Amino acid sequence: MKKIKIKKIQMCKHIFTPIAHRGGTEVAFENTFEAFADAYALGYRWLETDVQISKDGVLYAIHDNNLKRVVGININIDQLNSDDLDQILISGKHRIPRLDLLLRNFCDVTFNLDAKNINAAKALVNLINSDKSFQNLCLGSFSHKTINYIREFLRRDLPTSFSRLEVFWLVLDIKFNKEAKYNASYLQIPKSYLGYKLVSKKLLDYCKKNGIKVHVWTINERNEMKNLIGMGVDGIMTDNCRTLLDVTKEYKVVDKKIVLDPFLIN
């Protein structure tokens, strides 16, 4: 596997964070090394991916728990050992990447890791606790039980995103003008959910006041990107990395030296 060359750049203040959702899908299948390499070459320094676990406890960057959609094989990830998973090719050419190799190859980016189940979360916590070189991470899960496990057993301070239940609590706090303390620092949400509009000026003002960064997923249309950036969201996750790159250049909201919430335009 080809190793990515790392550029040394200076940290500075966050303005807006473009995020490659599953590495993007413009040149390669989602969540493959080639997809992440393309986003990296474009300048993305915040990459989002999902974490599943094999039968023998190895973590992989893949969204679905079943391989049916990805390679046409109706079997779950946790029913296969890593030796078998390593031999599977997506579209006849892309391997499913092991998470630790992905983190080591792109070691100067922030990885947004979504643990898809409690077993994946336990293995992820063990991996991070055992290797201090894994630094720039934002950890999340839709499951409240899973994200709470990560927060409880992780032996260092890493940012986490809101679980689905915590998003519900936050929305209620905003609705009833209630002040509260939150365990998460990143609110990563769709524009709307089950017909309810989530992203609003009121939500953004509340989150800004409480030090919560708002990332919206998965936005692939140019006009939606423009509208959300205009509203003041802190980041957008997209499959269309080039489109978002063009929009951020238009708005001139991306600081070329950003590394802490990392993004670099060459």
Please, could you describe this protein's structure?
The chain has 266 residues and is an alpha/beta fold. The protein has one domain (17-251): Phosphatidylinositol (PI) phosphodiesterase (TIM Barrel). 34% of the residues lie in helices and 17% in strands. β2 (46-53) and β3 form a beta hairpin. The longest helix has 13 residues, at 118-130. The radius of gyration is 18 Å and the shape is globular. It starts with 16 loop residues before the first strand and ends in a 15-residue tail after the last helix.
Total separate domains: 1
Helix-strand pattern: EHEEHHEEHEHEHHEEEHEHEH
CATH secondary-structure class: Alpha Beta
Strand tally: 12
Report strand %: 15-25%
Q: What is the terminal separation in angstroms?
A: 24 Å
- Outline the low-pLDDT stretches: 5-14, 255-266
Structural class: alpha/beta
According to CATH, what is the topology? TIM Barrel
The best one-word shape is globular
What would the average pLDDT be, to the nearest integer? 89
Specify the CATH architecture. Alpha-Beta Barrel
**Relevant CATH superfamily:** Phosphatidylinositol (PI) phosphodiesterase
**Helix segment tally:** 10
